[in-house]
Amino acid sequence: SLIVAGGRDGSNRLATVEVLDMDVRQWSIASSLTRPLTDATISICGERLYMLGGWDQTGHWTRSVLSCSIPELLQSCQSQPLAVKLPTAPANKTTIWQQVADAPHYYSSCATLC
To answer: What's the mean per-residue pLDDT of the chain?
Structure first.
């Protein structure tokens, strides 16, 4: 699966998380982030996905480190047709993401290793 978290739709920062099932080429909407983020760095450690830094919805750098369980994220998916325009932030979703730390610096597009 390919996981896409946050980003921009051209004019808005997004809190959405989408998952592409590579076998059937179908997108699903997963549990949203706690807030919109762009330019964050993503890393996988074991069965957890971490997002570090980026820009928040107010246009400020953030030092937050968000984390979620990959199995929980995949279980939270709702299938959508491939051509559907994805909503900015599904209001009926509860989030499985949690802030686990603040980073020592502001990060964007950096390499991570776990």
So the answer is: 80
Find where tokens 């949203």 sit: 32
Q: Measure the CA angle with vertex 56, ends 90 and 102; round to 5°.
A: 110
Model pTM score:
0.74
Helices (H), ranges, the chain: 70-75
* SS3 state of residue 73: helix
| pLDDT tens, residue by residue, 61-87 | 998 999 999 999 999 887 655 455 444
Q: To which residue do tokens 């499985």 refer?
A: 96
Residue 37 near residue 48, CB atoms below 8 Å: no
Tokens read off for 43: 């890393």
- HSE of 113 in the Cβ direction (CA atoms, 13 Å)? 0
- Asked if 40 and 108 touch (Cβ cutoff 8 Å), the reply is yes
With tokens 């919805």, the residue in question is: 57
